Structures are given as structure tokens and as C-alpha cells.
Amino acid sequence: MSAVDRSEHPAKEQLILTPLPDCPPEIGLALTMMADARRRTLRALDGLDARSLDWIESGGNSIGTLLYHLAAIEMDWLFTEVAEGKLDQSVWDNFPHQVRDVNGRLTLVTGVTLVDHLARLETTRRILLATFQPMTLADYRQPRSLVRYDVSPEWVLHHLMQHEAEHRGEILTIRMMAERALGI
Predict the structure, then answer these.
(1) Is the pLDDT confidence value at 156 over 60?
(2) Among 18, 112, 116, residue whose Cα is nearest residue 62
């Protein structure tokens, strides 16, 4: 039997979900899934040329617009549905634009650096974690009654993961088209 040359076999990736500590395991598991969704989004942005951030195909969205939208929607669900408006109003200081324009389309957000978009996403996520980690499992599953629907914080996390994944696909498509159009 010969020894295996480890230099030819890098450490294998660990695809295991470990619940975030300091909260009930069910909540910690969902927060770990949220972190994985965000890691994938950040990976989709690795090496992004600044010119691609504001590039727009006729009638479409820019990557910057989608990053703003991801953060704004995460904050809106957190503020309105999960915290039922009980978060400090200052959480909106990072959001100078309405999410949608008068025609219902995402508001075009340009002239913002990737660093600033990422900082907004990080701030929003920090507030989300601070809201969910101390939550009891009963509160996590307790529906909030709004005018149009009842919704639990548990469902909100599920929805936000789906929302981010869908827009990550859109970001990757826009990036590919932008890089092709810009010759990057």
C-alpha cells in the first residue's frame, strides 16, 4: 500500500448545513441557509468589472438595481411582516430610492459602487440576524396578521432565500450579457 499524495487531492468541500448557534436549531438552520444563499450571490459578483454594474439591456435591470432591490425587499419583509413595524425607522436610512417607479418597474439605481451595494446588503443582513437570533421557536412560527395575508417569520426566511436565488440568476445573466457587450 502506498501513501496518497495529498497535493493532488485538495481538501474536499463540505456541503453540510450546521445551524447558526445562539438560537433554536430550526431558526439557526434557516439562517445558515440564508447565509449560503448570500455566499452564492457574492460569488456571482466576484471579479465583477465596475462597468458591468450599471450596464442595462434595453428595458431591463442593471446588476446595481437588483442588488439594491435585494437589500430593500429583505428590509421590507423584516420591518413590516416580521417586526411588525417595531424596528427603528433609521433602518431605512440606507434606502434613498423607492423600490419601484411610477410604472411599477424596479427603480433604476446607478452610480453606486459595488462596495456600497455590498455594505447595504451586509447592514440589512446584520439587522435580520439581530431580529431572528433571539426569537423563540413559537414566535418564529407565529403568523403575523396583515390586511392582505397572514405570514410567519419562518415563511419570510423561506421567501427571502427564493427571492435572492431568482435574482442571482438574473444577475448572472446580465453579467454575461454585459461582459459580452463591453468586451470584458
Answers:
(1) yes
(2) 112
Burial 155-171 (b: 16+ CB within 10 A, else e): bbbeebbebbeebbeeb
Q: How far apart are CA 23 and CA 19, in angstroms?
A: 9
Residue 28 has pLDDT above 90, yes or no: yes
Residue 55's pLDDT is: 96
Which residue type does 21 have? P
What does each C-alpha distance from 81 to 31, 34, 55, 147, 183 come to in angstroms? 17, 17, 33, 11, 43
β strands within the chain, DSSP E = 144-145, 150-151
Residues for the chain: how many in total?
184
CA atoms within 13 A on the CB side of 141: 6
Cell of 164: 435572492
Q: Is residue 57 within 8 Å of 174, Cβ to Cβ?
A: yes
* Residue of 111, 99, 113 lying closest to 45 (CA atoms): 113
For 15, half-sphere exposure in the C-beta direction (CA atoms, 13 angstrom radius) is 2
CA distance 37 to 28: 14
Report the candidate in 73, 71, 72, 51 with the shortest Cα–Cα distance to residue 62: 51
Q: Where are the beta strands (DSSP E) in 60-165?
A: 144-145, 150-151
Output the pTM of the full model: 0.90
